[in-house]
Amino acid sequence: MPETQRRPERLPSxxxxxxxxxxxxATALAFSSGCEKGKPVEAAPPEVEVVEVVQKDVPITRKWVxxxxxxxxxxxxxxxxxxxxxxxYTNGAYVKKGALLFQLDPRTFQAAEDQAKGVMxxxxxxxxRAQAQQGKTQLDVNRYTPLAQQGAISxxxxxxxxxxxxxxxxxxxxxxxxxAAAQASLESxxxxxxxxTIVAPIDGVAGIAAAQVGDFITPQSANPLTTVSTVDPILAxxxxxxxxxxxxxxxxxxxxETETRALGRLDFELELxxxxxxxxxxxxxxxxxQVDISTGSILVQIEFANPNRLLRPGGFGNIRxxxxxxKGALLVPQRAVTDVQGKYLIAVVGSDNKVSIRPVxxxxxxxxxxxxxxxxxxxxxxxxxGIQKVQEGIQVNPKPYQPSSTPSTNSDKGAAK
Length: 417
Fold this sequence. Notes:
Oligomer: single chain
CATH superfamily of the largest domain: Efflux pump adaptor protein, beta barrel domain
Number of domains: 4
């Protein structure tokens, strides 16, 4: 019979039993595996990075935005009206006190001075004539007095001579007053002639002129001709709030110091708008008498030496100074502090690696750290990375904190509960 037509051979009964046993074993293993997967598996403690609370003396730095201004800013205006003939300084140049800045047309003022001189000479002539007349009338009085006593002339003639002398004296006084008035007019004319020459009242940097040659200048002109500012030293104006001022004053009074002495010993640094630090330190110059009611701030002026005139009025910068030293301050990284609706929380890891969420009171910021005034102790371990993984009473796997190379803000606000 051909091979393809053979009937399949029957397996022995022992082979059938063997296959059945394999099937049962596989089924049992599968069932057992399914039961193991269904059993709840205990999760491993979350890994977090912790850092110990550091205690050290910390300098408390204050910082304010400041704008620069000249120690003196002299607005140059004309005191007389006239046509501007020439500008004699270079815009933006440094000028010395008394240097000629502008020249007005002096002819009108010269004519007024010459006229005043003529009036003066005329008044002097009137005085000379009055003096001559009074001399004659005085002689008549002197001569008529003994004659009237002797009866050689009538008393009426003596009275007429006395009256004429008094009139001459009055003319002398009037002529003297005219001379005084003429002198005043002459001095005024001389001043006006001098005002046609406009000079720098101080040493400083002169700004770009606001008027051009040919303009008619008056004392009532809206804008000054220019401004001259002393820039060495230069002043930085900063405006701390009234709250900052009161807090500082309480600290000063508590230390038993005076305001001037406490502020005078501070050194101020100036950070320029390009991020560079000005190399010279500043000193306290003045504290304004009042708080600005519109802004709630008070003006404080800091003086900086400016020998190379790098700093110019109108510039901006940041002023900072070390106001005090906080002794034994407790420091934690800023990212370890969580702000929850105005309340500050820190996750503390105990010796058993369990987490305790503590409310804390924060103080000043110091670099990338925050000063904690209440709620922590030196040596406490706080979670600085992985705050979003923790909650009260949970056990964690703490690792040393590895701060990132670039500062970052705490993105885990509200995670610790």
